[in-house]
Automatic annotation (TrEMBL):
InterPro entries for the chain: Aldolase_TIM (IPR013785), Elp3/MiaA/NifB-like_rSAM (IPR006638), MoaA_NifB_PqqE_Fe-S-bd_CS (IPR000385), rSAM (IPR007197), rSAM_sf (IPR058240)
Pathway: Cofactor biosynthesis; Fe-Mo cofactor biosynthesis
Role: Involved in the biosynthesis of the iron-molybdenum cofactor (FeMo-co or M-cluster) found in the dinitrogenase enzyme of the nitrogenase complex in nitrogen-fixing microorganisms. NifB catalyzes the crucial step of radical SAM-dependent carbide insertion that occurs concomitant with the insertion of a 9th sulfur and the rearrangement/coupling of two [4Fe-4S] clusters into a [8Fe-9S-C] cluster, the precursor to the M-cluster.
UniProt name for this protein: FeMo cofactor biosynthesis protein NifB
Record-level Gene Ontology MF annotations: 4 iron, 4 sulfur cluster binding; lyase activity; metal ion binding
Cofactor requirements of the protein: [4Fe-4S] cluster
GO biological process, one term: molybdopterin cofactor biosynthetic process
Domain of life: Bacteria
Family in the record: Belongs to the radical SAM superfamily. NifB family.
């Protein structure tokens, strides 16, 4: 996508979507619909969970069917009329199962005014890009933690693709190649692509410029760098401090605009990100560890 068009698109979406600039973070809302239970890769820091307390990605109170998700969306719109975005961000990968696409199709039919927004690890993004675009997905977040397979292999234990499990550098290279193809395709279709990078000190903190340069060339519009939450196989790793985070953001900003208002929301978050989560008003809480 031409540079100028990309900037114009980002400006336009920034006024409507709370997570593509600081501009709308305090006055536009999103609802996350947790319809995607499983994943097709294993990031070493990922611990998905069903509970009502933790405020982080990968956590939801419950998994919804696409039909139930539509009901929750309707209630969320009544509760918070400033919601402009219907997002699906897990708790697993949104393309590992068909439910995210099914949900977006239902939403597009009933609420074509909403922006459909998807987060993914990108492994299957190229395969589903046309269908996502058809289903009204206009903004997308792809998590790209490395573009060097030797670094990615330290972050991702394995990937599951076409009935096979791949490990190590082979898995990492397959994932990186798939992410690149997916980002390029979504950007070419006209979607605004945000890149999430989980900053992992000692692993990818010296690699931010390479990631930012690569995704910029592929057509991404904005970068969101989020600090590692040390858990699962990375439980003993250090969480980056404010200084490290701020340095990484400055490096990325040499290549693309950087989003600095991310709240690290749950997979069932509801409302205006800068004003707190309303999901407890929509769900009957229960749940158990997954
Ligand atoms: Fe967890 Fe997302 Fe990584 Fe899958 S892609 S393992 S859901 S962090
Ligand atoms: Fe927005 Fe960050 Fe929350 Fe995603 S996790 S909805 S980018 S604030």
């Amino acid at each position: 996508m031409a540079e100028e068009l990309r900037i114009k698109q980002l400006e336009k979406i920034s006024g409507q979507h709370p997570c593509f600039s600081g501009k709308s973070n305090m006055n536009k809302g999103r609802v996350h619909l947790p319809v995607s239970p499983t994943c097709n890769i294993q990031c070493k820091f990922c611990k998905r969970s069903l509970n009502k307390t933790e405020q982080r990605p990968g956590v939801t109170n419950q998994i919804l069917t696409p039909e139930k998700a539509l009901e929750i969306l309707e209630k969320a719109l009544e509760l918070c009329p400033d919601i402009t975005v219907a997002g699906i961000a897990g708790p697993g990968d949104t393309l590992a199962t068909p439910y995210a696409l099914e949900t977006f199709r239902l939403i597009k039919e009933r609420h074509p005014e909403l922006i459909n927004c998807l987060s993914t690890n990108g492994l299957l993004l190229e395969r589903y890009a046309d269908e996502l675009w058809e289903a009204g997905v206009k903004t997308i977040t792809v998590t790209v933690n490395a573009v060097d397979p030797y670094i990615q292999a330290q972050i991702c234990s394995f990937i599951f693709l076409g009935d096979r499990v791949y490990e190590g550098v082979e898995a990492a290279q397959l994932l990186i190649d798939a992410q690149k193809r997916g980002i390029r395709k979504m950007a070419a279709l006209g979607a605004v692509v945000k890149i999430n990078i989980v900053l992992i000190p000692g692993v990818n903190d010296d690699h931010i410029a390479d990631i930012a340069e690569t995704v910029s060339q592929l057509g991404a519009s904005i970068i969101n760098i989020i600090p590692l939450i040390p858990q699962h196989e990375m439980a003993d790793f250090e969480e980056p401090g404010c200084q490290e985070l701020s340095e990484a953001r400055a490096v990325a900003e040499e290549y693309l605009p950087v989003f600095r208002h991310c709240q690290h929301c749950r997979a069932d978050a509801v409302g205006i990100p800068g004003k707190g989560d309303l999901s407890h008003l929509l769900y009957e809480f229960g749940g158990q560890e997954q």
